[in-house]
Design a protein that fits this description.
heterodimer; A: 84 residues; mainly alpha; 75% helix; 0% strand; B: 524 residues; alpha+beta; seven-stranded antiparallel β-sheet; globular
Chain lengths: 84, 524
């Protein structure tokens, strides 16, 4: 169950974390798109492992939901969306 | 590491493994044979037709295909060789369909002489490898499977890091049969770990591309992200047709332009887009040998072969620099025959890894929870799918040649798929009807026999002198190597059976944990 939560909720979180990294770094994200994609897959796999380490599925689910919400809110403070 | 943390890592590793193990087994087994994809293309053709191939050139083939199919030039690949081929995208009921025609399919007057149909073995093996032969969704399934496989690998590293050295020499005949599977699983996993990391990552990159671009577009960069990604990773943007027809330069002009721009390029294909239109673009692609990221492109205008861009080692953007090894590391085509043979062997070892992982999960579950219907089901499913896929592919090879030389030649490709599916079904039914121990005793021998029979059938029909041709030698050698691997595994299994009693799950009854049948104290 924890692994399943990590697989489903880890995907958007991994993408948003890489988006936040793109917003922080002073390099145009278009120049390292492939690296970002490869990195996002690694982060996704790591999030599945991390969620599997939670004591209960509830903790994993709530933690991932909260992290997704926070990452989404932080992304709204950047100018990335629509910049493509 | 705390025991509780280690246990969670083991649980996650087992969960990810059991969820993806069978899909990975199919992908790895088909992938092992797919290491000889090009040779298999040659193997599956009638040997007589190869000998009678006309002295054709790519220009004549291109002109003939475009004359017969005016839309074929919108997107086409020309592949040079003894019998050049044109692979072009057709549209049937709004769906894109790839068609392949060879120079030997036509006579000098451009009339089609090859009968319709033929073998589809190499394409089927490839489809089984990258999408489990499930159209549309299979690729995405395999992408997600690859990410879970990556998670299982991370967990596996955490579990085994502290005892890597010990496990490297741990294939001992000690304790019960389960300990043996565990030792074998750990040993194979440790030996081939870097290879599995490469496969998980590059497989996920190829399978999840659409999912990643969709989610990143929706949440981070906006709806145009997918087109930005495509532009950033293509050698040249896909051209739009202007509607104005113009004369095109010749294939020789494109090849001369490519030679001038990149003398070290070994041409593997020529990609044509909007051929015949004034916006036509021609991409002469191939390899620069001696580099891991060897794929290279010389892009020209279609009408006058004017150079547009070059992408190759030392002459590409950072995105292309990273994208090129994703493909070459996955395909294993960067280091010649030796690397391909190594990938073949490692892929077969990967099959053993997933098979033993599933068995360990079933036995561990029974040991922990007592008689378990899910463990018994999973064990039988594992045996049915693994032996079914292996025997099914062998049967596809066996029926291919007799069909090709029969009056039903046009039905060869469907017959190969039917043979595969029917054998898989028989194996599944047999696995659920017989005791697992019987299945494990019978099917490896049967599969090995079928993999010996396949080259014999080919040689018997087309002549054993064809075995000396390099492509036939490689494909037949690969089939015999699979047979040899199965015989070896069966010998190991029989030796173990002589030394220790099987787990109760194998004889069709799962017993609860007792003093006589204790839980293995080392769960990893």
């Amino acid at each position: 169950m924890r692994g399943l939560l990590g697989s489903v909720l880890g995907l958007p979180l991994a993408m948003m974390l890489c988006g936040l990294l793109a917003a922080i770094l002073p390099i145009d994200w278009r120049d390292w798109l492939v690296l970002m994609m490869l990195l996002s897959l690694l982060v996704w796999a790591l999030l599945i492992v991390l969620s599997g380490m939670a004591r209960t599925p509830w903790r994993a689910g709530i933690g991932l939901l909260a992290a997704n919400g926070l990452a989404w809110l932080l992304l709204q403070t950047t100018s990335l969306y629509g910049g493509a | 590491m705390r025991a509780e943390t280690l246990k969670r890592h083991i649980d996650l590793h087992a969960w990810a493994g059991i969820l993806t193990g069978l899909a990975l087994f199919v992908a790895f087994f088909a992938g092992a044979l797919n290491m000889f994809h090009h040779e298999l293309h040659h193997w599956q053709e009638p040997a007589a037709r190869e000998a009678a191939a006309p002295d054709a050139n790519m220009q004549a083939l291109l002109d003939t295909v475009v004359a017969n199919n005016p839309d074929a030039g919108q997107w086409m690949f020309l592949v040079p060789g003894d019998d050049p081929s044109a692979i072009w995208r057709d549209t049937v009921d709004g769906e894109g369909v790839w068609r392949t025609e060879h120079a030997s399919d036509f006579n000098d007057a451009g009339e089609k002489v090859a009968p319709p149909g033929g073998s589809g073995l190499s394409d089927f093996v490839n489809e089984l490898h990258y999408e489990l032969a499930i159209p549309k969704f299979g690729l995405y399934v395999m992408g997600i499977v690859s990410v879970l496989y990556g998670a299982a690998l991370i967990g596996g590293l955490v579990i085994h890091w502290s005892r890597l050295k010990k496990e490297f020499f741990a294939l001992k005949h000690q304790g019960n049969l389960r300990r043996y599977w565990k030792n074998l699983h750990n040993l194979v996993g440790v030996i081939s770990y870097p290879f599995h990391v490469i496969f998980a990552w590059t497989g996920a990159a190829m399978g999840c591309l659409a999912i990643v671009t969709l989610v990143m577009g929706a949440l981070v960069f906006g709806p145009r992200f997918q087109s930005v990604f495509t532009e950033a990773t293509e050698a040249w943007p896909t051209p739009e047709a202007s509607g104005t027809r113009v004369a095109m330069a010749s294939i020789d002009d494109y090849l001369a332009g490519a030679r001038e721009a990149m003398p070290e390029l070994d041409v593997g294909w020529i990609e044509l887009q909007q051929y015949g239109d004034e916006n036509a673009v021609v991409d002469v692609g191939g390899s620069v040998h001696g580099k891991v990221a060897h794929y290279s492109h010389v892009v020209m205008r279609g009408d006058n072969a004017e150079l547009l861009t070059v992408s190759g080692p030392g002459q590409r953007s950072f995105n292309h620099f990273l994208m090129a090894p994703v493909y070459s590391l996955h395909f294993g085509d960067y280091g010649g025959l030796f690397v391909r043979l190594m990938y073949f062997a490692l892929a077969l070892l990967g099959c053993l890894l997933f098979f033993s992982g599933n068995i360990m999960w079933c036995e561990r579950r029974t040991d922990r929870q007592g008689p378990s219907r899910s463990a018994a089901f999973m064990l039988r499913l594992t045996l049915g799918v693994t032996f079914g896929v292996m025997a099914g592919l062998a049967m596809a090879f066996i029926v291919s040649k007799p069909m090709l030389y029969s009056p039903w030649q046009a039905w060869t490709a469907p017959a190969e798929k039917i043979a595969f599916l029917a054998t898989l079904l028989v194996a599944l039914v047999a696995a659920f009807r017989a005791a697992p121990l019987t299945t494990a005793g019978l099917w490896p021998k049967l599969c090995a026999g079928l993999y010996i029979l396949a080259p014999l059938v080919q040689g018997g029909i087309e002549g054993f002198h064809t075995w000396l041709e390099p492509d036939f030698l490689l494909v037949n050698g690969a089939l015999l190597a699979v047979a040899a691997s199965l015989i070896l595994v069966d010998r190991l299994r029989r030796r173990r059976m002589r030394r220790a009693a099987p787990h109760p799950l194998w004889v069709g009854a799962a017993h609860p944990v007792t003093a006589a049948n204790p839980v293995d104290p080392d769960p990893a």
